[in-house]
Amino acid sequence: MIELPDLFHENRIPELTLSLILYIPIGLCLVLIRSVILLLLFVISSIFPKNSSLNQLLNEVISLILTFTYENQTVGNEEKDNRRAAKILVANRVSLFDEIVIQRFICNTNCKVVNLWKENTWITWLKLNTIDSSRTQEDLLDLCCNEIQHSNSQLVFLPECESTTGTDGLLKFNLLPFTLAQKRQLSVLPICLRTSRAFQIRTSVFNSHPFADLFWFLFSPYTKFHINFLPVVSPTDSSSDEVFCEKVRENMCRTMNIEMTQFDVREVDELKKRPDLLQRRHEQRRAEFQQMIQLVHQQVPVASVEAIRYDLETTKNVQKTIANLNERVAAAARAANKSSSSTTTTSTGAMTNSSGGNGHRQTYERLKQELIEKNRQLFLNKNCN
Question: What are the two backbone dihedrals, phi and then psi, of residue 188, each rounded to the nearest 5 degrees?
Fold first, then answer.
C-alpha cells in the first residue's frame, strides 16, 4: 500500500558516482553562464510590455539555455488536433518548469497557465502568460470563463499543486478546471509528464525551495521531459465535478502505471511539518527494496545486482522482475546456441582441431540450460503455491 511520503523524492542525488564528481566543474560553469542569461531575460521582460511574442521568446530561450529535450510518447495521430482544439489542459506536476514545457508543445501564443497554488516562485517574476491565484476560487473561475469566452485562450492547469515523482502516484486534483469544464461544457485534454536527467538528478525533492530546484536545472547538462497527450475527456450532464475529475485522474494513472491515491495538498502541508516521517518511511522503503533485490538474486543467481535493481525500479514487482530476467537469460542462451551452431557449420575442421575447448563450451552451455530450467521451475512452483 502506497503512503504519502512515497510520492516524493527524499534526496536530490540517489548515489554519488565518480562520473558525477568529474562533472562538477563543468556543471558549475554551466550554472554561471546560464544564470547570466536568465538575468538578461529578466531585464528584458521588465523593460518590454507583456505580450504573446515576448512570452514565446522567453519560452524558447529558457528551453534552449537549460537544454530541455523532449520525448513525445503519445500514441495515435489525432493528438495534434486535440492539442489545438482543447481549451482546458490538465497535467500532473513534476518540476519547476512544467508550464514552459507544455506551452512550448502547444504552439499557441494565446495559451495561459493558471497557477492554483498560493506561493509565488521566481518564474512569476518573468512576464509569462500566467494567471496567478491571488484571488478566491470563485473569482478565479470567473476569470477563466472570461478568458475562454472572450480571448479564445487555451488554459493549462497543474491541479496536483505539488511536485511529485511522477512514477508512484497522483495526488487528488484541485476541482477548479473540472468545474470550469462542466460550466462551459468543454472537453479536458489530460497530459502525463515525467522527467529524467543524467546522473539520476531529481527535478524536485520534498519541500525543496524553488531556488534549489532552479540551481539543479542550471547545473544539470540537460533535462528530458517525457510527455504523453491522452484522448480528450468530455463532461456529462449526469456527472458531478468530483466524478469528472476522478475519471480524468484515473485515465492518467492507468496510462502512467501509477496509483490513484486519496492524498490531497492539505495532507502534504501537514507532512511538511513532520519531515521525520518522510525520512523514516524512505528508510523503510530502502530496506524493503534491498530485500526484494536479494529475493530476486536467489531465484536468478546469474543476473547481476545492477540488472536486478534496474528492472525492479521499473516493475516494482518481484515476480515480474524474475520473469523478465529469466526471459533475458533464455534469450542470451538461445543467441549463444545459434552463434555456436553457425560457427560449427562454417568451420568444422577448426572445431575438430579444438575438441578440448569445444568440450568446455558444451559443458558450459549444458550447465547454463540446467540453471535456466531450475530457475524456471522455482518460479513456477512459487506462483503455483
Answer: -115, 135
Give residue 352's pLDDT. Answer: 47
Instruction: Using DSSP bridges, classify how beta strands 188-197 and 223-229 pair: parallel, antiparallel or unpaired.
Output: antiparallel
Domain boundaries, the chain: 4-262, 277-343+364-384
Grid look-up 508543445 returns 105
Q: Which residue has the cell 500566467?
A: 130
Residue 329 to residues 223, 324, 334: CA-CA distances in angstroms?
A: 33, 9, 9
Ramachandran bin of 138, using left for φ above 0, alpha for ψ from -120 to 50, beta for the remaining angles: alpha
Q: What is the pTM of this model?
A: 0.78
**What's the sign of the alpha-carbon dihedral 166, 167, 172, 176?**
positive
Write the DSSP string, 6-66: GGS-S-S-S---HHHHHHHHHHHHHHHHHHHHHHHHHHHHHHSPP-HHHHHHHHHHHHHHT
pLDDT in the model for residue 107: 67
* Environment class of 366 (CB within 10 Å of its CB; exposed 0-12, middle 13-18, buried 19+): exposed
CB 218 within 8 A of CB 35: yes
Give the Cα separation of 11 and 35 in Å (integer).
24
Residue written as grid cell 462542466:
182
Identify the CA nearest to 97 among candidates 158, 183, 152: 158
Per DSSP, the three-state class of 275 is helix
- What is the rounded CA–CA span in Å between residue 378 and residue 356? 33
What whole-number distance in Å separates Cα of residue 246 and Cα of residue 88?
16
Cα dihedral 298/301/303/307 (nearest 10): 30
> What's the chain's Rg over C-alpha atoms?
26
What are the average pLDDT values for consecutive 10-residue runs of the chain, which has 385 residues? 89 91 96 94 83 80 92 71 82 91 78 76 63 78 87 88 91 94 92 94 91 94 94 87 94 93 92 88 86 89 85 83 87 78 56 50 68 68 57
